[in-house]
Design brief:
With 689 residues, the chain is of the alpha/beta class. It is built from 24 helices and 14 strands. The strands form 4 sheets. It has a 7-stranded mixed β-sheet with strand order 5-6-7-3-8-9-10, sandwiched between helices. It is elongated, with a radius of gyration of 34 Å.
Length: 689
């Protein structure tokens, strides 16, 4: 018997016994109470009224936020045909064709592993298709369109130490147009938080692996809230209801439905919708093993499969029914044979057209009140609101400029950078570590004397301080970009801000915060150890130490930007620090290094730190008494010294260049900062096709 005939036979086909049994059991296990009174009880009436009012409130809130003009003139119709995606020899998508229109909600469903997220990533330009066309308003996507498209991932990355309010305010300030006042931006963020039910947790932090924050459901709604700030023309959502209860899921879909009513195009993947949520879908695309299993009107899915002989039990959720069909090997084997590779069910009312063929008019079921009543009582007729998708109304010219100015972006990013950095700068564990080590250093080198025997000890102290404050900031900076990579790529893909504003704000925020811990360290141990009691030396010593900290942090950021693998970045930083230590002039006197290799010492940035600190401490005013025997000429041949700091530098092989060392350090710092920017520019480009 031909394959098509097999499908038409439905449950009579031997291979369909498995599915028939599963659906029959579900039907028996969930009988409808046939004796329910026709008159609602007072409690039930109150419940229905409360639910209806809640949904009407969503509609009213959105209308108040959006205003009379709707989403705007930039409406987007998305068409895609014959989409194929391959990873190696495996084909994940096998010729998917459909379209999504302004004013409609297109739901993409299918069993796990059917290709839902892969398709959404393809439409968002996050992965490259091996075949097929994707058109926006009849044209291939261009870079400028990304500012009008929102993509809500299953689990977005946020800075965990920021509160929900801080995340929303930052997004509003940076992504809303410059023409809006700051109060208006903040007001919109507050109203969206209230709309999505995250206003009550707005002062809670998002959360980190070590700090408890908001719940998974609240985090999911925050994902959506940051994307709704700009009222995008096209919204792509990857399983937005996962982790939400059915009531919250319904509220969320009602919000998306209302956005669609105002001209937005909504495409969402849904894993397992409730009956109420399913009733809100306009069109439905069901995938099975990368094939189109069903494409058409959501309300017609049961009828279409009934025509094929697959009967949906009366008590069964249509969404569960179609997923069971798509999951059944018997059904998919019959529908997708070698001779019928694209044998999915296509609803004639929304049959897939060639890209570029535009619908001239379309309608959408409108008011949330009527949608709610349809969910609760099937008998009420839906109202209709006309939304034109005539090609003349669809946007063809796109503004590629940023919504906010560089200054506005810099201010918002600087505020965020301070919020994020202050948690590490004022971390109790780090500060405790700094204080303890400073006390240990002060006690070990406590009030060194001015005898010749103390010279080498003082040299060791200066070198230890320089090396410790190279390790500490560098290894902190190593973690900068690997942890922020996902956030930076997402925000750049959305066209949220300029990379120069991001990087400049990050550098400016870190400079003052990097000063806190080394200043605390030096205040404790400097006079305890008796480095040099001259106040002028103290301040020059402190300045050089801060310069060393900033240079080490800059080099750490360069390594961090260059290598996204944290383990490899740590190895690179360790090699750089150890190499710099060995040839800095403390372990090996420069005069003892082979002549042909002596140049290598100038590659060590710690040489300049150590040289600068040593020339400040061992200045001509610092004097030591002679030892017996003495290695200093001023203490030999009957001379009795004293030994000056200049004599010490000469014997130790340290060039007395007090002005050159800090200038070179500044040059290394500038080189590292500029290089990091270009590395970020080329390595952290958003993956948007």
């Amino acid at each position: 018997m031909p394959a098509d005939a097999d499908i038409e036979q439905g449950y009579n086909h031997p291979k369909d016994v498995e599915l028939e049994t599963k659906l029959s059991v579900a039907s028996v296990a969930n009988p409808i109470n046939q004796h329910t009174s026709s008159n609602d009880t007072k409690a039930n009436a109150a419940f229905r009224s409360e639910l209806s009012e809640r949904h009407k409130q969503i509609s009213n809130t959105l209308q108040g936020l959006i205003g009379n003009k709707g989403i705007g003139s930039k409406k987007i119709k998305l068409e895609f045909s014959d989409i194929e995606v391959k990873i190696g020899p495996r084909k994940l998508l096998k010729g998917i064709t459909a379209s999504a229109h302004p004013g409609q909600v297109l739901s993409i469903m299918g069993p796990s592993g059917s290709g839902k997220t892969t398709l959404l990533n393809s439409l968002a330009g996050r992965i490259k298709t091996s075949n097929g066309k994707i058109l926006l308003n009849g044209r291939p996507p261009v870079k400028a369109m990304k500012r009008y498209i929102a993509y809500v991932l299953q689990d977005e990355m946020f800075f965990g130490t920021m509160t929900v309010r801080e995340v929303m305010y930052f997004t509003a300030r940076i992504r809303l147009p410059e023409s809006m006042k700051d109060e208006e931006k903040i007001g919109r963020a507050d109203e969206i938080m209230t709309l999505l039910g995250i206003g009550k947790c707005c002062d809670s932090i998002v959360g980190t692996p070590f700090q408890r924050g908001i719940s998974g459901g609240e985090r999911k709604r925050l994902n959506i809230a940051v994307q709704l700030i700009t009222w995008p023309s096209l919204i792509l959502l990857d399983e937005p209801t996962s982790g939400l209860d059915s009531s919250t899921s319904l509220d969320l879909l009602l919000t998306l439905k209302e956005l669609a009513k105002n001209g937005c195009t909504v495409i969402t993947t849904i894993h397992q919708p409730s009956s109420a949520v399913f009733n809100l879908f306009d069109n439905l695309l069901v995938l099975a093993d990368g094939h189109t299993f069903y494409y058409g009107n959501a309300e017609g899915v049961v009828e279409r499969f009934n025509e094929r002989g697959f009967l949906c039990p009366r008590t069964y959720n249509p969404g569960d029914f179609v997923l069971e069909l798509a999951k059944s090997k018997a059904v998919t084997d019959a529908m997708f044979t070698a001779n019928n590779a694209t044998g999915g069910v296509i609803d004639p009312s929304v049959h897939a057209r060639k890209p570029g063929q535009m619908d001239h008019t379309m309608t959408k079921k409108a008011s949330l009140g009527s949608i709610t009543e349809k969910t609760l009582s099937k008998g009420e007729e839906m109202k209709e609101v006309s939304i034109s998708t005539d090609s003349a109304d669809l946007q063809t010219d796109w503004n590629d400029s940023f919504a906010s100015s560089w200054t506005t972006q810099f201010k918002a990013l600087l505020t965020r950078a301070f919020i994020v950095k202050k948690h590490s700068a004022f971390d109790n564990v780090d500060m405790f570590q700094v204080v303890v080590i400073a006390l240990i250093v002060g006690l070990v080198w406590f009030r060194q004397g001015n005898s010749e025997d103390a010279i080498q000890d003082r040299f060791g102290l200066v070198f230890f301080i320089g090396v410790f404050w190279a390790f500490f900031p560098m290894f902190q900076s190593i973690m900068t970009f690997p942890t922020e990579r996902a956030i930076l790529l997402r925000e750049r893909a959305q066209g949220a801000y300029r990379l120069s504003a991001y990087y400049t704000s990050k550098v400016v925020a870190e400079i003052p915060l990097n000063v806190i811990n080394p200043s605390l360290f030096i205040l404790i141990c400097y006079y305890m150890a008796g480095v040099n009691d001259d106040p002028r030396v103290f301040f020059s010593f402190w300045f050089t130490l801060i310069l060393n900290v900033e240079t080490s942090a800059a080099l750490g950021m360069l390594i961090s930007a260059s290598q996204t693998n944290i383990k490899k970045a740590l190895v690179a930083a360790s090699i750089l620090i150890l190499f710099s230590m060995l040839i800095a002039g403390f372990y090996v006197n420069s005069d003892n290094i082979p002549t042909w290799l002596r140049w290598i010492e100038w590659l060590s940035y710690l040489k300049y730190t150590f040289g600068s600190l040593a020339t400040q401490v061992f200045n001509p005013d610092l004097e030591f008494s002679c030892g017996s025997p003495s290695q200093y000429s001023v203490c030999q041949d009957g001379n009795n010294g004293p030994i000056t700091g200049t004599d010490v530098l000469e014997v130790q092989g340290v060039a007395n260049l007090p002005l050159v060392y800090p200038v070179v350090l500044m040059g290394i710092y500038a080189f590292a900062r500029i290089s990091t920017y270009f590395v970020l520019f080329y390595r952290y480009k958003p993956k948007v096709q």
